[in-house]
């Protein structure tokens, strides 16, 4: 008679508690706000205070500053992707959907995160690459739909739209974010009006891709 071999039970990894998930989200939200206001070097203790958690909670979720900055950047890209998905789900005017997306993405303060991506951590981190690829594909689909409808000039690329949105939503030197907020959407709309087809002028160079911007 053969003895049955006991098969060890497979243990499932415990799911994070709801309060732990809420704390993590509060930390990311507070960090996003403070990075926008003060830059990526803001003390983590200050982020903990704004999030309403202890310092230990911050370090338990993010072992170092780079991990937190990366999470913030990925979070903003994910939120931008969600805005693009919502715009793609609309069945109305293709250019108006693109307009709403650009205004929404500007509110995410993508421009404030550009220096962080360039200077504080590995740009090729898998999490960042996945979030970036998803975001760029969705924006490309939005633009392709508007071009197919004959509403978006054909000589612009994803990079053209994103660099303009970033530059127009970045406060000029010597001014604060809150002061600049009054003008961001006005200037974005001026830019968007220039994207409409038919084009009134010939642009120098070629349509800018996001890869062009990364290599610049």
UniProtKB/TrEMBL annotation:
DNA-binding annotation, residue ranges on this chain: 43-62
Keyword terms of this UniProt record: DNA-binding, Transcription, Transcription regulation
Keyword Nucleotidyltransferase (UniProt): no
A GO molecular-function descriptor: transcription cis-regulatory region binding
Pfam families cross-referenced by the UniProt entry: TetR_C_43 (PF21597), TetR_N (PF00440)
HTH tetR-type domain span: 21-80
InterPro entries hit by this protein: Homeodomain-like_sf, HTH-type_TetR-like_transc_reg, HTH_TetR, Tet_transcr_reg_TetR-rel_C_sf, TetR_SbtR-like_C
Protein's name in the database: TetR family transcriptional regulator
Species annotation: Streptomyces fuscichromogenes
